[in-house]
What does this fold into?
Amino acid sequence: MNKRHKNLDLPPERIPDLPPGPDIMFTTRTRIKAATCLFCQWRSFSISARQFATPGKLPPATPAPKTPTPSASSSSTAQPPATPEAAKDAKPDPAKAGPLAHAPRGYGKKLESFTPTPLGRPIGMNTPPKAGENTGVDTRTLQQRRDDFVNYEKHLERREYLKSQMARPYFRDWRNMQFHKGKTFLAPPRLFKADLSLYIPNFHGRTLEKTKEAASADTTPLLQGRATIISIFSSLWAENQVKTFMSPQSNPALHEVIKASGGRAQIVQVNVEEDSLKAWIVRLFMGSLRSKIKKEDWCKYFLVRKGLTNEIKESIGVLNSKVGYTYLVDHQCRIRWAGSGDADPEEKEGLVKGLNRLLEEMKKEGVSETYVARPIGEGVGVKKTAIAQ
It folds into this structure.
C-alpha cells in the first residue's frame, strides 16, 4: 500500500460490521479507502475552481475619477462619442433615422400589423448622381484586391454582410404583401421643397435599343434637364402596380401633360432583375417588350442587374422587392414626390399636379431645349454637359 494513503484509513469504530471472512473485509476496506481518496480529490478540485472563477479584486494603482451622475434632462439625450474614432464608427441606422422607420422590411423584426402613412420627409441619396456609378462591377486593381484579401477588417466586414444575408427570411417580402397589397408608404400631399430634396441614384443597365451603346447605359444623363416619372419594379405584379400611376388607361391626364410639355417631361422604367436566370429570361423576350413600347421610348426602358445595394434601397424607400415604386424627379435629379404599390385616386391627382408644378419651376429657371447643365455653385444643373433633346 502507498504510504501517503495511510493517513486516510478510517478509525476502527467507523468501520461497519461485516460478516467474518478475510476476502470480504479486505474488499470493503479497499472500497472505503478509494471513496475517501475520490472525496479528497473532488474537494481540492472544487476549491481551486472557485479560486479561478472568483479572483480577488486588486486595488487600483490610482483612484479612479468620479463620474458625474447624469441629470434627468441629460439622460434623455444621447451622449456624443468620446473620440473621433468612435464618432466615425457610430454610424446612424437608416432604418431608424429615416422617414420609413416603422415600415415592414425583408429583414429585422416581423410586424403583425401595419398601416402606411404619407411621407413626411424627403427620401433619396445625399450626393448628386453621376454616370458610371452603381455598375456593380469590381474596378479594383490586382494590388488592391491583394491588400483587401489580407486585410482582417475587410474579412470581418464581409463576414457580417454574409451573416445578414443568410439571416434574411426568404418569404418575408411575400408575407409583407398582406399589408395593403405591399404598399410601403403613401405619397406626400405636395412636392418636397427643392432645397431640401434628396437625389435619385444612378441606375446602370441595358436598354431596349439595338445599338452597342444600349448594352451599357446610365439613367443620369437621361434625367438631367427634364421632369421625369421613374418607375422601379422587379416582377409582373410590381409592374402592374406602377401602371396604376402612369399608364394611359389609369392616368390619362398625366399623358396629356407629358404630350403638352414639348419634350421636357418623360417616363423612365427601371426593371430590376438581380437574379441571373430571370434577367436572362427577360433578355430572351426583349422583342416582345419592344413591341409593347414605342420605338422612341426604347432608350427609356432599363434592365438593371447589379448596383442596387441595400443602402440605396433604404435611401429611396425600396423596402419590398415584390412592390412597384414610382418617383417624380426634377431636372436636377432630385426626388420631389414618391409613391408605392397601387395608386389611390388622390395619389394620381397629386402626381399630375406635381408634374405641372415642376414644369412651371423649369420655365421660371429658363430650362428649355437649349438648357445647359452647370455646376451647382454656378446655378442649376449638376455637371457641364449639354442636354440632348
Remarks:
- Residues 369 and 388 are 8 Å apart (CA to CA).
